[in-house]
Design brief:
By secondary structure, this protein is α/β, with parallel strands linked by helices. It folds into two domains: 315 residues, Adenylosuccinate Synthetase, subunit A, domain 1 (Adenylosuccinate Synthetase, Chain A, domain 1, 3-Layer(aba) Sandwich), CATH 3.40.440.10; 93 residues, Orthogonal Bundle (Adenylosuccinate Synthetase, subunit A, domain 2). The chain is 31% helix and 20% strand. It has a ten-stranded mixed beta sheet with strand order 9-7-5-2-10-1-11-15-19-20, with helices on both faces. Strands 14, 16, 17 and 18 form a four-stranded mixed beta sheet that branches. It has a two-stranded antiparallel sheet with strand order 3-4. Helix 2 crosses helix 6, helix 3 packs across helix 4 and helix 3 runs parallel beside helix 5. The site of magnesium ion (MG) has 5 residues, from loops.
């Protein structure tokens, strides 16, 4: 049994939820390791559609153990609601989900600070966050001023929460906005802590036990490589490590526990929020991809920015996470496109870039160098065998693999479980 890390290789929304659901069949444990309720992972099973924000996508496979590792920042109120919604739809969560006691909490004050910062920021400095309090919660963790889920099970946490609330309310007063109701906020948190009590545990210890016992662990990444706080298009990033390294720091399992890394990429590219996006299409083709791909945020409903596949980004993602195989998704969205373009390099001020530059300013000035491929102009969603796909579609996928130096593991041609070709995974 092997342990697999699954990462997003672009700017998020690559279809990680769907691929985790497909791979969960062969796993015993599915563990999230970073991010928070900024994530929106969609899974379609038959006529049912689920969008998960904090709970690992493995929850939809009966019997699989699911873990929220301590690398996440968890909004207790949002998590209680998500668990209730799942249970109401007949998904058993109790007894299957464990939440790391070292995970930091996102309090209502973090959401408030997130929204206020975004509101204040000048147009060019706005990140376009999901306003789920992610950045401020990770900032408090780094400041050593955070509250952890395990704290909610003990006494004394209210003092820390009150301090954070007082600080936030002082800022609100200065900005002339409504303060948060301290008594109500503490009451809500107390109730959420009580509801989460049966789920909170030492996941560092239990995951180590899973590993020792030879159980197969699937690590579910959130966001994508280009949103990684260290390796992404800083400052237009999220506040955690969404690349494969985050799987270790966010669960407490060592690097040698990881046997392979699967990267999820769309057959084109999307991005939500601000920041450079070299292959973005602000034209009819961009709109075509958005409509055909139903590219609207699973968390915020915002229209996603759409563009051609960027092989420079995918190559970089493969390099920094050590991707062993691709899961390529949404090939079907390109079914009607006559000529498909792929960015193979960038140029900027007379220089050619084969890898992603560190500076968001330089990246924003980069122009794509495109290679063109003929489209297949027929439906792929109902094709039942990989070999039966149109030759041009297979040639396009082969090219993506050749340009990025990573073999194909899974190909997805529709949102449902059965619209999936498992080749080497
Ligand atoms: P995640 O955040 O990486 O899990 O991705 P999202 O769930 O935010 O966005 C991916 C969207 O694409 C979801 O609506 C999926 O149902 C859908 N999807 C996944 N794979 C495919 C595919 O191969 N074809 C099509 N048409 N849709 C897909
Ligand atoms: P999944 O897991 C796409 C983006 C936001 C914003 C930036 C920072 O579904 O792929 P944050 O709220 O994290 O401080 O916002 O990151 N972002 C995502 N974009 N998919 C996600 O998650 C995202 N999570 C955050 O739009 O640009
Ligand atoms: Mg998503």
């Amino acid at each position: 049994m092997s342990n697999t890390v699954l990462i997003g290789a672009q700017w998020g929304d690559e279809g990680k939820g769907k691929i985790v659901d497909v791979l969960a069949r062969d796993a015993d444990v599915v563990a999230r390791y970073q991010g928070g309720s900024n994530a929106g992972h969609t899974i379609e099973i038959g006529r049912e559609r689920y969008v998960l924000h904090l709970v690992p996508s493995g929850i939809l496979y009966p019997g699989k153990r699911c873990v929220i590792g301590h690398g996440l920042v968890v909004d207790p109120l949002a998590l209680v609601q998500e668990i209730r919604d799942l249970e109401a739809r007949g998904v058993t969560v109790r007894g299957r989900l464990e939440i790391g006691d070292r995970a930091h909490i996102v309090g209502p004050w973090h959401r408030r600070i997130d929204a206020a910062r975004e509101g204040r920021a000048a147009a060019g400095a706005r990140i376009g966050t999901t306003q789920r309090g992610i950045g401020p919660a990770y900032a408090d963790k780094a400041h050593r001023a955070g509250l952890r889920l395990g704290d909610l099970l003990e006494t004394g946490w209210e003092e820390c929460a009150r301090e954070r609330l007082n600080e936030t309310n002082a800022q609100a007063a200065a900005a002339g906005t409504e303060p948060l109701d301290t008594a109500q906020t503490l009451k809500d948190l107390r109730a959420a802590g009580e509801a989460l009590k049966p789920y909170i545990g030492d996941t560092v210890a239990s995951l180590a036990a899973d590993w020792r016992a030879g159980r197969s662990i699937l690590f579910e990444g959130a966001q994508g490589t280009m949103l990684d706080i260290d390796l992404g298009t800083y400052p237009f990033v999220t506040s955690s490590n969404s690349t494969a390294g985050g799987a270790c720091t966010g669960t407490g399992l060592p690097p040698k526990a990881i046997d392979r890394v699967v990267g999820v990429v769309k057959a084109y590219t999307t991005r939500v929020g601000e920041g450079p996006f070299t292959t973005e299409l602000n034209d009819a083709m961009g709109e075509h991809l958005r409509q055909r791909g139903r590219e609207f945020g699973a968390t915020t409903g915002r229209p996603r920015r759409c563009g051609w596949f960027d092989a420079v980004v995918a190559r970089y993602a493969a390099q920094v996470s050590g991707v062993d195989a691709w899961a390529i998704t949404k090939l079907d969205v390109l079914d009607e496109v006559e000529t498909i373009r792929v960015c193979v390099a960038y140029t900027c001020e007379g220089r050619r870039y084969e890898t992603v530059p560190a500076s968001a300013r330089i990246l924003a000035a980069c122009k794509p160098v495109y290679a063109d491929y003929p489209g297949w102009r027929c439906a792929t969603s109902d094709v039942k065998q990989f070999e039966a796909l149109p030759a041009a579609a297979r040639a396009y996928v082969d090219e993506l693999c050749r340009l990025t130096g990573v073999p194909l593991g899974i190909l997805s041609v529709g949102p449902r479980r059965d619209s999936t070709f498992r080749l080497s995974l």
